[in-house]
Design brief:
Length: 376
């Protein structure tokens, strides 16, 4: 059942809610946080924490992907980023950190665009993924739909375990008169590795993505700290409602497919532990984190955070954002926390919230009671 409200005389719209608009409610039972499990599994790969590192150059390098994997999460390397364009991207990252400090600087945006014009080198894709594989952690790499046809064979030959197709928005029915669109259903069917695909921001597009055979669907559109999609394109999807809609699609697809479970992964707009907790409460199985991990001392962005939208060659719709460094990645995830604003000990906060509301694992916690509690 959907409820629409009038927006003037000629338009109606559905009310949607952000993560700031909701709160979880304790139940009659509490637990010891040490008895709570935050592990999850996608396909044959099990992880001790429901944290996926966003494929962004300010967040994931081969070394931080390895570090996150060793800490129980999954690091995803951007295979269209600086690490596959430059043999040694360290000087480039150093330059980006010294660009004009203003987040809206046209000069900084222009320089980002120039730095990302260097071509992607297939041999570097192979080398970076081999470096991650040599550490023994699960190997994951990301391409946009536009680049998938060109580079996926290189990615598979390098031995990727999980393949991520990630864009601002990804549909199962892309229409183009100028180029041959990626047929996701045929593409995923022919692969031998699990595929995570998205973003999707609603029930219908998510259901269509699930029907392609994807193992997981990313939920989000322009919700991250670096994006200005709402200002540039007028497009935005509040995350609480989006996650709930996609979780509903997952339930209906399970009935339709005879029990096939597709994982829902919240992607964007989760800068604090409270946002992570509420995303899982709304139905997410895991979260893909950008700014939260960009605050770690090891993050390659050196205190700055940006995504692919910031250096789009024609329509940039993102910003390079200055973040405060919280501490080592292990402290960001597991504490002990020295910040009271939800930017460190993210997993400890998740365990405590689950324990306070009486739930012992993530699937149970998706049933927690939530209420509308708008900050405004």
């Amino acid at each position: 059942m959907t409820y629409e409200i009038e927006i003037g005389r000629g338009k109606r719209g559905r009310q949607a809610y952000s993560l700031d608009d909701i709160a979880i409610v304790p139940s009659r039972r509490t637990r010891d946080p040490r008895d709570v499990s935050v592990s999850w599994q996608i396909d044959a790969y099990q992880f001790q924490t429901p944290v996926i590192g966003a494929p962004m150059d300010s967040v994931m390098s081969p070394s931080t992907a390895i570090m996150l994997g060793q800490l129980g999460g999954l690091g995803v390397l951007d295979l269209e980023g600086l690490w596959t364009r430059y043999e040694d991207p360290t000087p480039v990252l150093d330059e980006i950190a010294t660009l004009e400090a203003s987040e809206t600087s046209p000069a900084a945006t222009k320089r980002l665009q120039e730095l990302y014009q260097s071509p992607i080198q297939p041999e570097l894709i192979t080398a970076r993924l081999a470096e991650i594989r040599a550490s023994g952690v699960t190997v994951a790499g990301s391409l946009t739909p536009q680049r998938t046809q060109e580079h996926y064979k290189t990615v598979l030959a390098a031995g990727v375990d999980i393949f991520v197709i990630r864009g601002t928005t990804v549909s199962a029915e892309h229409v183009s008169k100028s180029s041959e669109p990626l047929n996701l259903k045929q593409f995923i069917y022919e692969l031998d590795v699990p595929v995570i695909v998205g973003g999707a921001a609603g029930y219908t597009p998510a259901l269509h993505l699930m029907r392609t055979g994807a193992a997981g669907v990313l939920v989000g559109f322009g919700g991250g700290a670096t994006t200005t999609t709402r200002r540039a394109l007028g497009i935005h999807s509040p995350m609480a409602s989006a996650i709930s809609d996609v979780a509903s699609a997952r339930r209906d697809y399970m009935d339709e497919s005879g029990g096939r479970y597709v994982h829902v992964i919240a992607d964007g707009g989760m800068g604090s532990s409270g946002d992570i907790i509420k995303s899982i409460a709304m139905g997410a199985d895991a979260v893909m984190l950008g700014s939260a991990l960009a605050r770690s001392a090891e993050a390659p962005g050196k205190g700055w955070h940006w995504g692919a939208e910031a250096h789009h060659p024609e329509q940039p719709r993102g910003e390079r954002v200055k973040l405060n460094t919280v501490g080592p990645m292990e402290e960001v995830l597991f504490g002990p926390a020295h910040h009271a604003n939800g930017t460190s000990n993210l997993i400890g906060a998740l365990r405590r919230a689950m324990a306070t509301t009486g739930y012992s694992d993530l699937k149970e916690f998706q049933r927690v009671e939530v209420v509308l509690s708008p900050l405004g």
